[in-house]
Structure formats: structure tokens, C-alpha cells
Design a protein that fits this description.
Layout lengths: L9 H13 L3 H11 L7 H12 L7 H10 L8 H14 L3 H8 L7 H10 L2 H27 L8 H33 L6 H13 L3 H14 L4 H13 L9 H14 L5 H11 L4 H10 L8 H14 L4 H16 L5 H5 L8 H17 L5 H7 L4 H14 L10 H9 L13 H20 L1
Length: 458
């Protein structure tokens, strides 16, 4: 069969190989690989991946075979040597063979001159950084094992000889942990100054720093990572979470830096849950940018039926409705800009009438009614129909808040009745106007309702 494997059979053999891999027909996989091994070119990558998949089915029994296979991979000229090295390192780490993984990653000391030459010649800058990252990860694993061993030592109820022996072991473990920590941090600090996604590795560095309560060291590391990788949301998130966890451990005030991290996260990942925390901070300082961030958040399907975003936006509008005219005009400018790109699709996306009996849904609809009254008008079909779905207490609460919010200067669409009154030129305070009319009642209730709403928001 080996002599009957021309190149034109490769597509057929590859399809058969895929089917055998998917059905775990390992003996047939080996037969097909035996055929592919004699194809002159174009199949090295397939042979490598399929062979590893087969050997990984029983890694304990195939350990020696996998090692031998790895050592022969340099003969496959079409295979990326770095990829094979990293594949083998991950295999060894997964199976707890840390020392063996360390030997592999120290490729420069390899006795196999041809393999060493292939690896060192072909490495790009990014690939060298990747090897540095895995080297640091190995030292982290060594450190983690050492500190766990030291933390679990129990010297109670030991004889003197056992106590001395355990103490000696603890000192040895402490030295091992110290050296491994230094080597790991040296590798990870190098990565923090390089462009690339090094999230998993730098999170281990932060763990080491926090274990020794070196919070400034962790902060410096993550600041470098953030500076060199501004387009990675996690570079901002890691720094924010560190500052959040250890806010009282830093000499300088970190509030502004935390806010900067949250703003970067919101710009890169508008649907991130941390955007809500940013909006809470902005709301406290009465920053109108909270409107922009919440509109961006609510564009996403994941937030469409979640109460948090809608409730926060409704609260922000209610707070703004109690501000002076200048602030309300600023809010209207932000609302107009946000709504101009959404008015064609948000009504059908967010403001469609649905029947509901859930208390959580009732709170969600109450917030949506307040927002829709600003964007579509209180007399819109959504507001009118949805209000009847609310229970009595929620309905009354919404009516009180509507009195406040619809008399604000930032409302984008006034009620039809209000527009008609304005266009007819009649004075709302004229004697012929019914004292029980809705606009009159709203004007009289505004002060009282503002007080009640202020108390509710506190």
C-alpha cells in the first residue's frame, strides 16, 4: 500500500482520516497515517496533528512514544517548530511533568544541534516572547507548589527529630519558592512591556505579587501592560480589579485611575457589566456622559431584558430632571445625539407591548415607560398600553415620576395634548381652562412629586 499512495489520493485519505478521528477509530487512523507518511510533501502538518491526537487518547501508556515522536518532528520541514515545542510543553504541564517541560523549553541546551538550529533560526520576536511566557508559567507552577507545601505544614504533635526534619524541609521549600518567584516575575515583567495578549500569564504574576502583599509591584506591572496594550479590554480590567480589591493598600488615591480604566473598558467593550459600575460613578457626580454609556450598553441583546441598565438610565433621567435649565439642555444634547442613530430601530427593538405578570418584569417595564416617555412621548402606544400591566403601587409610582420627568426641558417628544395646546395659542393658566386638566395638575404637583422622587432615589 505504501507504494500505491500517489499525491492525488491525499484528499481522499484526509477525508477518511477526519472520519476516523471523529469516530475514534484509532487503529484505522494509524493505517492512514502510515500511508500519508510516504507522501513526499504537503501532509506534514496533518501527520503531526493526527498522530498527537491518537497518542493523546492514552497519554500514560504512550508517554515514551510521544517523547520520541516530538524528538523526530524536526524532520518534518513543513511544521512550525515553535508550535511543536509549545504543544509538547502543554502536554507535559497538563500531565504534571513540570521538570520534563522545563527541559523541553530550555531548547538552547539541546544536544540535538539540528533541532536547536531550526528553532533558534525560525523564531520571530513574538515567538520568543511566547517561549518566555511559558518559561515564566513553569516557574509559577513551581512557586505555587512550593508555597502550598509550606502553607500546609503542620508542626504540632511532632517529635523533636521530626520537627527538625520538617523545619529543614520548610527552609528548603522557602528557598525554592523564593527563586521560582523571582524567575517567574522576571519573565512576566518582560511580557508586560511587550505588545500582545498575555492575560493568562500576567494574572499569575499578580497572584504572586498579592501573595507577598507587594501591591505597588502588581500595579506597576499592570500599568505597563495597559500602556503597551491599550486595545485589549483585559489590560484595563486587570488593573481596575487590582485597584478595587486593594484600594486601601496604595499610598496615592486611585479613584481617578479606576475611573479611567472603566472608561477604557466601556469604549472597547460597551456591553461589559463593569459599564454599570462606571455609570454609578458618573451618576454620583451628575456627569451627563452616563446617558451615552447606557445607550451603548442597551444596544446589545444581552442587556435587552435586564433590569439593571434600564433602571440606571431611568434614575439618571429623573435626577437630571431636578437640575437647572443649563444642565437639562446638556442632557437633551446627549439624548438627541444618542437617539438620532437609534430612532429607526429602538422602538421595535425595545418598546413593543408585551403581556407580563412577573414582578421583575413589572419593574423593568416601569423603567422602560419612563425612558419611552422622554423618547417617544407619554402618549405613545407603548406607554399607554404598558402602564395597564403594572400593579397599583407600581402604577402610582410611575405616574408620580412621569409628572416630574415629562415637565423637563430634555424631553425629546412632547405629548400630543401638550403640542395641541401650544399650537392653539391658549394660555394654560387662562380662566377658561379646566382646573382639573392634566397639564394644570402636573404643574401643581411638580414640587411635591420632586420631593417624593428625591427621597425615593436616595
Amino acid at each position: 500500500m505504501r507504494n500505491e499512495s500517489p499525491v492525488h489520493l491525499v484528499p481522499c485519505l484526509v477525508r477518511l482520516l477526519r472520519e476516523c478521528l471523529l469516530t475514534h477509530s484509532w487503529s484505522k487512523v494509524l493505517q492512514i497515517l502510515d500511508c500519508l507518511a510516504y507522501i513526499p510533501k504537503g501532509v506534514d502538518w496533518i501527520v503531526w496533528k493526527a498522530s498527537l491526537a491518537t497518542m493523546y487518547t492514552e497519554p500514560d501508556t504512550n508517554n515514551e512514544l510521544i517523547e520520541q515522536f516530538f524528538r523526530q518532528l524536526y524532520l518534518l520541514t513543513e511544521v512550525d517548530m515553535l508550535e511543536t515545542v509549545l504543544e509538547y510543553i502543554k502536554f507535559l504541564i497538563t500531565h504534571g511533568m513540570i521538570d520534563e517541560a522545563g527541559d523541553v523549553i530550555k531548547y538552547g541546551n539541546s544536544k540535538d544541534k539540528e533541532r536547536r538550529r531550526r528553532i533558534q533560526t525560525d523564531l520571530t520576536t513574538n515567538q520568543k516572547n511566547l517561549l518566555t511566557a511559558y518559561h515564566g508559567l513553569l516557574y509559577y507552577i513551581e512557586w505555587h507548589g512550593a508555597v502550598n507545601k509550606a502553607d500546609n505544614h503542620n508542626f504540632s504533635q511532632l517529635s523533636r527529630s521530626c520537627y527538625d526534619m520538617m523545619q529543614h524541609q520548610e527552609e528548603s521549600t522557602s528557598v525554592t519558592a523564593h527563586l521560582a518567584r523571582n524567575y517567574a516575575l522576571a519573565s512576566f515583567e518582560t511580557l508586560s512591556k511587550k505588545k500582545g495578549v498575555w492575560d493568562i500569564f500576567l494574572s499569575k504574576a499578580v497572584e504572586i505579587y498579592e501573595y507577598y502583599q507587594d501591591f505597588e509591584g502588581a500595579k506597576c506591572l499592570l500599568e505597563n501592560y495597559r500602556k503597551n496594550n491599550p486595545n485589549n479590554p483585559n489590560s484595563h480590567r486587570f488593573l481596575f480589579e487590582l485597584l478595587q480589591r486593594n484600594a486601601f493598600c496604595f499610598e496615592d488615591d486611585v479613584i481617578e485611575e479606576k475611573l479611567s480604566c472603566l472608561q477604557s473598558i466601556a469604549n472597547l467593550d460597551p456591553a461589559n457589566p463593569l459599564v454599570l459600575q462606571l455609570c454609578d460613578e458618573l451618576q454620583e457626580s451628575k456627569d451627563v456622559r452616563v446617558v451615552d454609556y447606557l445607550f451603548d450598553l442597551l444596544d446589545y441583546e444581552v442587556w435587552r431584558e435586564k433590569l439593571e441598565g434600564w433602571k440606571l438610565l431611568a434614575q439618571s433621567l429623573l435626577i437630571c430632571s431636578m437640575e437647572d435649565c443649563k444642565k437639562q439642555k446638556a442632557v437633551k444634547s446627549h439624548l438627541s445625539r444618542c437617539w438620532s442613530t437609534r430612532k429607526d430601530w429602538w422602538p421595535s427593538y425595545h418598546f413593543t407591548f408585551k403581556t407580563t405578570s412577573s414582578a421583575a418584569q413589572s419593574d423593568l417595564l416601569a423603567s422602560k415607560i419612563l425612558i419611552a416617555s422622554v423618547l417617544l412621548g407619554e402618549d405613545s402606544e407603548f406607554c399607554q398600553k404598558t402602564k395597564h400591566q403594572l400593579d397599583k403601587a407600581t402604577h402610582l409610582d410611575v405616574e408620580m415620576k412621569l409628572i416630574q420627568i415629562t415637565n423637563s426641558d430634555f424631553v425629546l417628544r412632547k405629548n400630543i395634548s401638550d403640542r395641541d395646546s401650544s399650537s392653539s395659542g391658549r394660555d394654560l393658566n387662562s380662566p377658561d381652562k379646566s382646573p382639573d386638566s392634566l397639564p394644570q395638575k402636573r404643574l401643581r404637583l411638580t414640587s411635591a412629586s420632586s420631593l417624593q422622587i428625591s427621597q425615593d432615589l436616595m
